Amino acid sequence: MSNKAEQFNKVVSKIDRLEAYVEQIVSMLNTGGSGGRGRKRRTRSHDGDEFSKRLNKGEAASCSSTTGEKEEGCSVEWSASEMSGSASRDGLHDESLVALDESDQPVRWNRGFVNGIGLMSSYSVVFPRGLEWVHERSANSEADIERISQWQAHISSRNQVVTAKPSVEQNLSSSTVMGYMLEIYKRFTPSEVLPVHIRDVDVDALYKKLSDDAASMKSSELMIVNIISALVCLFLRLGTISMETVSDLLMELPPHLIQKYEEEFVGTSLSLAYRVALASEGMISIKAIVHLIIYTGLSGAIYASYSLISVAVRLSQDLGLHSESTYTTLSEADLEERRGVWWMCRAIDLRFSVILGKPPVVATFDTTTKLPEKDKTFELLERVSIKSAGHSKEYDPEFAEDLYDTILKSKGFLSIAGHYHVKLCTLTSRVYAGLYDCSTECNPKRQYRRIKSIQRDLEEHQLSLPKCWRDGRLFQSSNMTGSTTEAQGVLVMENTILHLLDTLLVQRCRFKVEKYLKATSKLSHEPEYKGVQSSRRILEFTIALAQNYLNVVIRVNAWAFFVVCIDIFCFSLALQKDEFQFEGDMNLLLNFLNRVHTSLTTPTPFTAHETNTFPMEMTTGDNFTNLLNNFLFLFARLVSIMKNTLEARTSKKLQLNYEFILQKYKEPPIQLPNSNFVNAFDFLNPGFEDCEALFEYF
């Protein structure tokens, strides 16, 4: 027994010594001791060079996977100029900051400081804990909260129905309809039909092969022609392709069946995607997956896009597209093709990671591939646009417009759009990695510097756009100018919305940091939440759009409108003290909901063509129609909660514009979207966000 007692005492003694050692290390890290200086961390910079940096005072500033920012605690260097941050030239000169210096103890932001990005954070407000938060800050709204609770429970409990390969009963075969769709595609340049295009895909050759010897086609090739056919069906239904220009091809095809054919094409593509993912056929397989991501993104199925990009990335890594060392023996054409495909995957990855608030698939230190050679023409366009839009007006605005028209004719719209899209995706990734990554650890001054740096770069990016692109002013009427088509307009509008959302997220993070500084007596003024201003601008911009654009923008960016409407709602309940602005925000929301309601009742060019051609056939509602009905119900209830709360605060009855929306969408819709694949309004994945922490800054 004595031996066992001695052994037990030895074990206990070792555990005590181990605990003391761990506590000593933690203490050294927290107090800026030498515990963090014992070793160097070696890693690779973006262009393949190795670097090492000693951590100062235990400040483990996050070298986040997607940030291009270069700071004291994070020494990642980027090979491409547009991927590098501008924090090094950013000074922090704010007299309201009191005694805030680099010697402050590093702060590990809790969940309340690093969440609040992506759809999951907005979805939290309609879950039980979020509704408790709403109940505490509202008045006389128990009935509306109960309706939302029952609606959310019904959606969350429904069975998932994934898009199956449907069977369409029709006189025309799928191959015949596919021929019609590809013929429509060939009548235009790719940029006139689709806002995104994968180069080096010969659609004519694929269609000829499909007609002559379909059995010999690769799975990836079949997948591409099916997706292109589905995309053309989608844009026909949305009205971005003029029915007059293709009416001769649709005389034998009832338009109400186009949705059914679209679903069949997508179902076939999904079946082929599994085969392509497991047995890659080379570069064509990556392009096939990216085509499918383009479709899911444009149809609003952002969850599917986020999952599919991981497949495209893995296939790319298998071919070595992520490593610059694999490019040394390639021809110039192959080199640019591989780089272009890889960076398209990277841009898509970064974009959807920010939309959903989830980590990107590719970490910065996992790739050394440089961006495709940057065209100096686009740099010139940026500089001239900035200097013609700023206060100095070094260049005449007309000169900048003439330069844009010249470059548009020589380079094409998609080349210009691709340049600005990659640049904005890079800025978006910095918003996520520098401000919202849950591993972010820094002192408040460093976080504040990042915020100001990204804000300045976002403002500069907006000024660098051609004048007709800024704020989407060109697309606020149905009159088209120049060579711009409606499909191209969709891409420009999406750029505008993403830019405003980036600004919203940066302003949200700034408010959180300032709240922390105020609580620790390091900020003299009361923080003001300015993110709601960006939310209002997005709604005002959308309300001003012509109806033909509105139908497309709402479908493609349903997630964005959910985020901004929830932002205005939460701000109004928690922080809004101005009753006139409170009422103004309710009218703004109702005005937007009225435009959404109008989009459900106004015939598109497609439905008008159907009525004239097939007067006995009626178009059946699709999943997106059901989605909009659910969207309208939810936000009609949230506006009703705002109205009841303000009436209780002011003790007076309010008369709002478009108040009929509150009565029309009083009860939950009977029919719910039944396809998760094309459903951008999916509540089945709430993520890991804690609602209590989420709205802590409100």
Automatic annotation (TrEMBL):
GO terms, biological process: DNA-templated transcription
PANTHER family: TRANSCRIPTION FACTOR PDR1, ZN(II)2CYS6 TRANSCRIPTION FACTOR (EUROFUNG)
Coiled coil ranges: none
Source organism of this protein record: Eremothecium sinecaudum
Pfam families per UniProt: Fungal_trans
Keyword Transmembrane: yes
Single GO term (MF): DNA-binding transcription factor activity
The Xylanolytic transcriptional activator regulatory domain, residue ranges: 305-378
Chief location of this protein within or outside the cell: nucleus
Membrane-spanning intervals of the chain: 222-243, 288-309, 556-575, 627-646
Biased composition (Basic and acidic residues): 45-57
Subcellular location, record wording: Nucleus
Keywords (A to Z) from UniProt: DNA-binding, Membrane, Nucleus, Transcription, Transcription regulation, Transmembrane, Transmembrane helix, Zinc
Region of interest: Disordered: 31-90
Source organism phylogeny: Eukaryota, Fungi, Dikarya, Ascomycota, Saccharomycotina
A GO CC annotation given for this chain: nucleus
Protein's UniProt name: HFR123Cp
Listed InterPro entries: AtrR-like, XnlR_reg_dom
